[in-house]
Amino acid sequence: MEMLIPRAKLGEVARRFRLLSDPVRLEILNLLHVHGELTVQDLVTATGQSQANVSKHLRLLREADLVTRRQEGLYAYYRINDPMLAALCVLVCSQVSEVPDAPETRTAN
Asked: β-pairing, 38-39 with 75-80?
């Protein structure tokens, strides 16, 4: 039977989706998409996360080749390395925005 994703690639695809399932990593990727390159400190300020937490997420994204780093003096600048990443996020976000909000639950008084 023909498959969209070859069986040998399923593990790698699942790993990428796991990386994209974290809200902090999605926020970092969103910021990098909008602003191009940002430093760790820029990302710390924008997300409100600790430097250690942002650095951990950037390391994971770098290991997966989703972002790349450029060193300039004391600063490391991060940017998205995979051009399909933005398209994927736009596709998923457009689907999420089409889902109606859940109805409010009312309690009887």
From this structure: antiparallel
The reply to whether 11 falls in a domain is: no
- What domain range is 30 assigned to? 17-81
CA–CA–CA angle 65, 83, 77 (5° rounding)? 60
Nearest-angstrom CA–CA distance, 71 and 45: 19
Q: What is the pLDDT of residues 23-60, one digit of tens each?
A: 999 999 999 999 999 999 999 999 999 999 999 999 99
Tens of pLDDT, residue by residue over 57-80, are 999 999 999 999 999 999 999 999
Q: Which long-range contacts (CB under 8 A, 24 or more apart) does 6-9 make?
A: none
**Number of domains the chain is built from:** 1
In-domain check, residue 43: yes
Q: How far, rounded to the nearest angstrom, does the alpha carbon of residue 97 sit from its chain's CA centroid?
A: 18
- List the structure tokens of 89: 């996020």
